[in-house]
């Protein structure tokens, strides 16, 4: 298994490529702002051929380069239907002031081929099997992608902005909701094996076991799942990304 990535753009959004091995087909996860050049370098380095772009959610820092990457390689983009409109109008997922600051006169368009993700779906792409989990709360259409363990590599989850090392995604933007993200954490993260590697949308990798033991939001999610609605106040997240 080959998994490689780099932080893209001003938001330092982690863009990943995933393949069975070097020299084979791959998928691209979350090509963000100004990701095209670094992505092309990574693909050449490992002699990879993309067959799809996977989007964990529609915030612009994760989908900024989706259309150019798909267009240059003639490959489809996969996104949850609840976030699909953000591909062509990412300002819907932001505050008014942020929209004005980021975009000015910029426009975005959907790739020619957009395919919609469903909870529990298994994508068989590039010789990989990726399980899709719908994890709303950061946005309505947030998803994670999970790879099963293979040889010396444990289970892997591409968590987008659901779960970070020590924190979670913000919930104060349009489509965000704190009780909902707690339910997603409880349903989709807490049951995973301790050794599951978490590759987040921002910041360093971690493991489910480490986050279960140290992340206060996972502790709150566990409490909320067992004792009804959470009675906490959320400050909008860790301040990484959008």
TrEMBL record:
Chain positions covered by the region annotation Disordered: 222-242
Protein name, per record: MBL fold metallo-hydrolase
UniProt-listed SUPFAM superfamilies: Metallo-hydrolase/oxidoreductase
Cited InterPro entries: MBL_Glyoxalase_II, Metallo-B-lactamas, RibonucZ/Hydroxyglut_hydro
Cofactor(s) needed: Zn(2+)
Cited SMART domains: Lactamase_B (SM00849)
Source superkingdom: Bacteria
Organism: Streptosporangium longisporum
Gene3D superfamilies the UniProt entry points to: Ribonuclease Z/Hydroxyacylglutathione hydrolase-like
